[in-house]
Design a protein that fits this description.
Largest sheet: 12 strands, antiparallel
Order of helices and strands: EHEEEEHHEHEEEEEEH
Distance between the termini: 24 Å
Strand content: 25-35%
Structural class: alpha+beta
Helix content: 10-25%
Number of strands: 12
Length: 323
């Protein structure tokens, strides 16, 4: 695994590609966005990027009646953002396919120019019945006019976008056999769904995290390091891929395995299945960094936590490219 991205990256963005991007969103970090590590929670990085996607798609798909549905979200975190930071999203198109687009976003501190995170989103065009349909000539033309190359600072590190985490996922039977259950089986509630009874796409990460933990007891949010440090896990990269979303009443369960382990980082993948049919619903890859909340710096994973990560280490389950 490559070395982790430094959370103390203070250099402003200087890559020339950034000037080709379109400003799509502005925001300010508020108190309710701050988590137990004292910085903006990873969820709100994604909220900013999704706002950028909506704005960009509104410009590209003017008056198009179809839905442009996000099915793949990649995030690379560069620099933590603190209370009161003024943020800006700048966006462009990476690829134009027959029925889909790949979008690139940068989230930066508007006052300092410091890069906070970069994103790649894949969206597909859907008719009202859920069938995919080709992009119109007008959309293709407008999208191609916004095409940019992903700059070096936006490239992935540990997570490969060439791999297909959905097509290469293990079966429900296999993750049960390996005892990788993360949450108890639960039924999706109507409150988690839209008016049609389908799980809210914007809450897709909660399919992984919602529900009763398999191992009872309150999970620790902060841990004690070897020298008395207060350590937490800081997310460095994530990728969510959606195969399909459940409906109200469907019974779901999430599973998790470590697929890469280094001195300071742990790379996990999580799968959510509809348990009655055995269908895979979503995958969630995450590279976590052991983070000293006092010094705001990385540290080596403490022995106790390393042993826990190694107990569910299954490198053979890492996503792979499927032809």
């Amino acid at each position: 695994m490559p070395p982790p991205i430094g959370l103390r990256q203070d250099r402003p963005i200087t890559d020339a590609t950034t000037t080709d991007l379109t400003t799509t969103h502005h925001s300010v970090v508020t108190d309710d966005q701050i988590d137990h590590l004292g910085h903006m929670n990873v969820r709100f990085y994604g909220v900013n990027a999704q706002a950028g996607s909506r704005s960009l798609l509104a410009a590209i798909a003017t008056d198009d009646p179809r839905r442009f549905v996000p099915v793949d979200f990649y995030t690379r975190h560069h620099r933590e953002q603190l209370l009161g930071a003024r943020l800006v999203v700048r966006s462009g198109v990476v690829d134009v396919g027959v029925d889909q687009l790949r979008l690139y976003h940068e989230l930066a501190n508007e006052e300092t120019g410091t890069l906070a995170a970069t994103f790649v989103h894949r969206v597909v065009a859907e008719e009202a019945n859920g069938d995919r349909s080709p992009l119109s000539d007008d959309i293709t033309t407008r999208a191609r006019a916004m095409v940019v190359a992903i700059p070096e600072h936006g490239a992935t590190r540990s997570i490969s976008l060439e791999a297909d985490p959905v097509a290469s996922a293990p079966s429900l039977e296999r993750v049960r056999e390996l005892d990788l259950a993360m949450r108890q089986v639960r039924a999706v509630t109507p409150e988690e769904c839209d008016a049609s009874g389908t799980y809210l796409r914007s809450n897709a990460p909660m399919l992984t995290w919602a529900g009763e933990p398999v191992h009872r007891g309150n999970p620790e949010m902060l841990y004690e390091g070897p020298a008395g440090e207060r350590m937490g896990w800081a997310s460095m990269e994530t990728r969510i891929a959606i195969r399909r979303l459940p409906r109200a009443g469907d019974r779901v369960q999430s599973f998790s395995a470590v697929i890469g382990l280094a001195d300071k980082t742990s790379y996990r993948i999580q799968w959510v299945y509809e348990v009655d049919g055995g269908d895979l619903l979503t995958t969630f890859e995450i590279v976590n960094l052991a983070f000293d909340t006092g010094s705001r710096r990385p540290l080596s994973i403490p022995a106790r936590l390393r042993a826990a990560e190694q107990s569910v280490l299954h490198e053979e389950l890492a996503p792979r490219r499927v032809s």
